[in-house]
Amino acid sequence: MRLLRLAKIVIVSLRFGLDRMVLTADRSGQLVRLWRIVFFWRRFSEPRAVRLRKALESLGPIFVKFGQMLSTRRDLLPLDIAEELALLQDRVPPFPSNEAIAVIEKLYGRPVDEVFAKFERTPVASASVAQVHFAQLQDGTEVAIKVLRPGIERVIAHDMALLDAGATLLDRLWPEGRRLKPREVVAEFAKHLRDELDLMREAANCSQLRRNFTDSKLLVVPEVYWDYCGKSVMVMERMHGVPISRTPALLAQGTDLSALSRAGVEIFFTQVFRDGFFHADMHPGNIFVHADGRYIALDFGIMGTLTDVDKNYLAQNFLAFFQRDYKRVAQAHIDAGWVPAHTRVDEFESAIRAVCEPIFDKPLKDISFGKTLLRLFQTARRFEMEVQPQLVLLQKTLLNIEGLGRQLDPELDLWTTAKPFLERWMGNQVGFSALVRHVKEEAPYWATTLPQLPRLIHHALSTPDRIEAARRDMARLAQAQRRQSLGLTVVGTLLAALLALELWRLIGS
């Protein structure tokens, strides 16, 4: 079976001329000339990127998803290929309803009609790894049931083995292979697929996002019904709305498209900078609009997370970029650790200026946040920057948000919309309110750290031969407490102030 699948991959690759894409990397050109003699009868009128997209579509849904993931790696791929792969649409025929029912009944251990008051046999949506059916709980609650395709784990394991074998060959035989890191890319894709195969993980993502936007006037997220969920079945609240791509229907229900586009930008920056947890697959098929104008988020298989370091890096870069403070942009990369500490700031600043300055010939409303971030990544790679996966997901999501926003309102000025949010977030990271918040966050660590200090001091002073051991203990403790250093200073100051007040009271009495 694997040989047949491998044979199909080879045949499709030859039919669409993918072999030429690899051979053109041969600097001598001898292999290209030999290959053209052997396959003299082949003629290709379409660009290489179009042929690659069509080949992936011919190979099936797993390869389509791989192409979709590749389209986000614009830090690695040529721009024409990345743009074309972004056009891939994962249109997959549904699997038989009786198979979906079998998966559901296996989870619950009883007939589907006993579990649900009503179950619609015809699926409403189908993708490469799952499909969705509508149903009603026994109390009448309308729900959407996501069911994994039976045997999809075996299919994915089979195709991933072939992809890994192909990536290994590219890495060894193609001169560009080392730079494009095909094996690492395939491994990243496999991780995302494994996550999507566990619907309990997706349900948890959905629940977290819903909690983050409780009572939000901008975004509504379906409720998860945990008693009905398992690894292969996810049951959530059925959402009623209009797909965001259906502009005439949105206008018909009275939706303000300009306000909707601005809300999309605010939702994105709220997820990124307030929560550090964002929906990373926000294409039009996953976004509906409620009758009251709120966004409806669907499909939570791919979520991105950001640390405080990531968030600070992004905010510093966006603000500095639009102030044309390129030295600050360069320093932000170094401070975040994305480029080596030995990097010369002036050289890095000059490279960033050369890339970014031409952008300002355009009006701010025409400047793409996503493409700006991409240019920064590409420039930083020259200075040994390893692009972080979470930032690549973010850049892909930002491009999606921009596309949706400008589809709704071509005059949308993303900078005017986003700048106040970024400035407000940065303001919350410094000053007295930020200090109080950090003290509260670090307080639990002090409870275990402070009592150890007298013991360590006594241990160090008790015998001379223990001084070195105590020094090592203190060094390890200091390393673990760098985050608490500010808090310890504050606590010490407060204790000293309280002691002084008490002495003053005693003297006065």
**Which word captures the global form?**
globular
- Report strand %: 5-15%
Mean pLDDT: 78
Oligomer: single chain
For the sheet with most strands, the description reads: 5 strands, antiparallel
Q: Count the E strands.
A: 11
**What is the percent of helical residues?**
55-70%
Please give the count of helices: 24
| Number of structurally distinct domains | 3
> What are the segments in which pLDDT stays under 50 over at least 5 consecutive residues?
483-504
Distance between the termini: 94 Å
Determine Rg (CA atoms, Å): 28 Å
Structural class designation: alpha+beta
Function: Is probably a protein kinase regulator of UbiI activity which is involved in aerobic coenzyme Q (ubiquinone) biosynthesis.
InterPro entries: ABC1_dom, Kinase-like_dom_sf, Prot_kinase_dom, UbiB, UbiB_bact, UbiB_kinase
Membrane topology: Single-pass membrane protein
Protein name: Probable protein kinase UbiB
Strand and helix layout:
Elements: H1 2-15, H2 18-23, H3 30-38, H4 48-59, H5 61-71, H6 79-85, H7 97-108, H8 112-115, E1 118-119, E2 125-126, E3 130-136, E4 142-148, H9 152-173, H10 177-180, H11 182-196, H12 199-212, E5 219-220, E6 233-237, E7 242-243, H13 247-252, H14 257-275, E8 277-279, E9 287-289, E10 295-297, E11 303-305, H15 308-322, H16 326-336, H17 345-356, H18 369-381, H19 389-408, H20 414-428, H21 432-449, H22 452-462, H23 467-480, H24 485-508
Parallel strand pairs: 5-10
Antiparallel strand pairs: 1-3, 2-3, 3-4, 4-6, 7-9, 8-11, 9-10
Any overview of this molecule?
The protein is of the alpha+beta class and 509 residues long. It folds into three domains: 2-91 and 153-195, no CATH class; 240-430, no CATH class; 433-508, no CATH class. It contains 24 helices and eleven strands. The protein has helices spanning 2-15, 18-23, 30-38, 48-59, 61-71, 79-85, 97-108, 112-115, 152-173, 177-180, 182-196, 199-212, 247-252, 257-275, 308-322, 326-336, 345-356, 369-381, 389-408, 414-428, 432-449, 452-462, 467-480, 485-508; strands at 118-119, 125-126, 130-136, 142-148, 219-220, 233-237, 242-243, 277-279, 287-289, 295-297, 303-305. Strands 1, 2, 3, 4 and 6 form a five-stranded antiparallel β-sheet that branches. Strands 5-10-9-7 form a four-stranded mixed β-sheet. A two-stranded antiparallel ribbon has the order 8-11. Helix 9 runs antiparallel to helix 11 and helix 18 (369-381) packs antiparallel against helix 19. The radius of gyration is 28 Å and the shape is globular. It starts with a helix and ends with a helix. The relative contact order is 0.06. Residues 483-504 have low confidence and may be disordered.
